[in-house]
Specification:
Blueprint lengths: L1 H22 L7 E9 L7 E9 L16 E9 L4 E8 L2 E3 L3 E13 L10 E12 L5 E10 L10 E11 L3
Antiparallel strand pairs: 1-2, 1-9, 2-3, 3-4, 4-6, 5-6, 6-7, 7-8, 8-9
Length: 174
């Protein structure tokens, strides 16, 4: 049963990204980010994690006030050494800090499968993150990201967990 659920989540992850790209922004993704680091970084027992994220061009959403920043739709997946799989979609925005540094907070919602990983209370989990990255001369970036996963008290049990990862973002050329 666990193996079948894991395969279904992976299949949904692979199928959902092209569909979400057609529903959200017009045009192709502008960047792909790969990351690796520590899952459950603040817990006594942590695990390694790897993931990737597709980032689309920033867009102005009419429902937001004029002063709100343009949002960048994202979709991603991560997997840990303890069998955790988390597939998500959400938004981020970028705050330039000078010519080379960029601060990028964001949020997402997704499906969580734990296998031997930490019980977060349910399959629907929310991700909030902040990334600090350095823009390389050829427009790629290298950075560090810290994020928190929890179910926002939708379920009776909500311990939450944190991750710290190194990120490499490659801009896609047209």
């Amino acid at each position: 049963m666990k193996r079948a659920l894991r395969q279904i989540l992976l299949l949904l992850s692979v199928v959902a990204w092209p569909v979400s790209a057609q529903l959200w922004p017009p045009g192709p993704p502008v960047a792909v980010a790969a990351n690796a680091g520590t899952f459950e970084v603040l817990d006594s027992v942590s695990a390694y994690e790897m993931g990737w994220e597709v980032r689309f061009a920033p867009r102005r959403f009419r429902l937001l006030p004029r002063w709100a920043p343009d949002l960048m739709p994202t979709a991603g997946v991560m997997a840990s050494s303890r069998g955790v799989i988390y597939s998500y979609a959400g938004f981020r925005f970028e705050v330039p800090l000078g010519r080379r540094w960029v601060l990028s907070p964001g949020t997402a919602a997704g499906l969580y499968y734990r296998d031997r990983g930490k019980n977060l209370g349910g399959a629907l989990e929310f991700r909030s993150h902040v990334e600090l990255s350095f823009r390389l001369p050829w427009e790629d970036r290298i950075g560090v990201s810290f994020y928190h996963l929890s179910n926002a008290n939708l379920f009776d049990f909500n311990p939450g967990t944190e991750s710290a990862v190194l990120t490499y973002t490659a801009r896609l050329r047209r």
